[in-house]
Amino acid sequence: MLTAKKPPEAIIEELYIRALSRKPTDDEVQKLVEIINQDLNNPDRVTQLAGLQAQVDQQYRRGEDQLKKLKDEYQKLQDDGQEAAALTTLDNQIKQLEKQLSGIRQRYEGNAAQLVYSDVLWGLFNSTEFAFNH
Fold first, then answer.
1. What DSSP state is assigned to residue 42?
2. How far apart, in whole angstroms, are the C-alpha atoms of residue 66 and residue 25?
3. Angle at CA of residue 33, ends 108 and 112, nearest 5°
4. Is residue 47 within 8 Å of 111, Cβ to Cβ?
5. Cα-based distances in Å from 123 to 7, 20, 47, 67, 126
6. 25-47: per-residue pLDDT in tens?
7. 75 near 87, Cβ under 8 Å?
8. How far apart are CA 30 and CA 40, in angstroms?
């Protein structure tokens, strides 16, 4: 539905039909559209959602750990007065890893809408109405 660029109202209606076997009321649609728009139109919230998703990604966390080690090693070599060639190699590794992690975060930011709608669906699945109907 996101790929087809359906409006929030249409996605909400589809989620309600699939989870609760009914269409949402106008009030339910209005409240959920407000929540979705607040989340997706707030760059800080999108960044926060991407950060949360990145933290559960094992590969991303390993990359962050590796980046920290590289930066610590770079600082130690710099403090010890190492030659520029060793620092340049390490600096290039740091930049490459930072670029990779940034790409992963950007991908997660692009998936923020999917996370928000997943939360809506999760809420529907955990409602008493779902429990009583299924």
1. -
2. 50
3. 0
4. no
5. 20, 11, 22, 37, 5
6. 999 999 999 999 999 999 999 99
7. no
8. 15
